[in-house]
């Protein structure tokens, strides 16, 4: 279930020319950068918006690029999503801790707080006397670690990782953090995100003799660090990251340093905090800081590298001149916990306002408002408060049901929604019900939920979705279906309403979402709603290699890598997609 790896690490040469800060001071610090770097944080841009309620169609030209009946270059590709788990999946969460004698145990607790970001693999790397020691395993954090495993991870510095992945025999070797030795010592890395130029980088490295042990894009980063000619170690990371395209929030550890880095667009979140003893903590969300009693200080800025060591404290530099941030809006819609601050905003407040907007722009006569738990609850509370209608628990979620997609029978798989969600007849019978959910991906789960509520005696069912229609896949660290599987890419709102069987359906208007974000609006990525990608993907996204093996498909492994598949000969994704959205004002 878990594997332990011990690797020695030679300390890197200290960096003496960067500004330093005391590790023992819990108060906030100001951070200087190398000359000619952009200032942090980015200055806000004004953005004029008009509100437009989506009532007729979410169909988009992206469906012309990926029509429903279009096969991949190697034949038909079956969906990687379970009908009973029809949501985008965040692929991982990361933690880094420096300067605490119980670093690995605090890391373990922080990973518990981030468990919602990945449930199928977890790992911790701790540093003791310049030696990197690793425990990784398949399963939940509580299944991978126990007292004896944590005893194997002494030291005052540690990084940790939780990940979502498809089931498969290759999964364990892809569980992070990864640790590798190179000529100057050893380095461990935990990564949240996806690299859109992964295949090109891997091909270049393999042509030069690199040997890969996993199918993860994170391994590319380790190879780039190993071949870099830059000195000292921190500049090796900078040199490697300058070759990366896409999303990455990463924490690195060596024998004496903890490093945090965020890509220039800031797609995925990464925050910094401090414990009362001066220990520095990095994490994907502030909820992890709360659990281990660390005080939130600030975000790691887009394009920033932070290095922590005993000699110089916390040092900051600019990774590269960075563009306007494009932070993932789905963190506020679905992924992050409501009690987290993400991108400097309260997730709870965002979702509550989403519900209020729906109540204002898509009102309907109703008797009760319910949520699809758990991610729809806060938006439903906002809807109910604005509409002046009582909120009640009409659906009860069981938290003790395993993932149903591993069942071999489709008939059993369809039964999974009933195992997870139980309708409360006393709340629903004879009522006109508004059902608030965070999103609709393929529509399969929504149709089953509507059927459950009807069977419980509801008079009318009105679906309200606290996000705009999803018409594009994410290439920046979120596991979504390919574009042709997304129901809003193939159908209008009315067609979706008929498909799921409700009496009315409304999505959060896209323009209202941007208006709510105000001056922060230009800093968010909306690619899943618009198809306009800040960093163009190089390959067509279809499914993970683990899915192909598990589904018994005949897709050659040479054509699938991670979540990518080669396009047809002479296929240029940027030329195909960009003209469709050149009029978009995102």
TrEMBL record:
EC number in record: 2.4.2.14
Keywords: Glutamine amidotransferase, Glycosyltransferase, Iron, Iron-sulfur, Metal-binding, Purine biosynthesis, Transferase
Record pathway: Purine metabolism; IMP biosynthesis via de novo pathway; N(1)-(5-phospho-D-ribosyl)glycinamide from 5-phospho-alpha-D-ribose 1-diphosphate: step 1/2
Classification via CDD domains: GPATase_N, PRTases_typeI
A Pfam cross-reference name: GATase_7
Glutamine amidotransferase type-2 domain residues: 92-311
Cofactor(s) of this protein: [4Fe-4S] cluster
Catalytic activity field: 5-phospho-beta-D-ribosylamine + L-glutamate + diphosphate = 5-phospho-alpha-D-ribose 1-diphosphate + L-glutamine + H2O
SUPFAM superfamilies: N-terminal nucleophile aminohydrolases (Ntn hydrolases) (SSF56235), PRTase-like (SSF53271)
Molecular function per GO: amidophosphoribosyltransferase activity; iron-sulfur cluster binding
HAMAP family per UniProt: PurF (MF_01931)
UniProt record similarity statement: In the C-terminal section; belongs to the purine/pyrimidine phosphoribosyltransferase family.
Record-linked NCBIfam families: purF (TIGR01134)
Protein name per the record: amidophosphoribosyltransferase
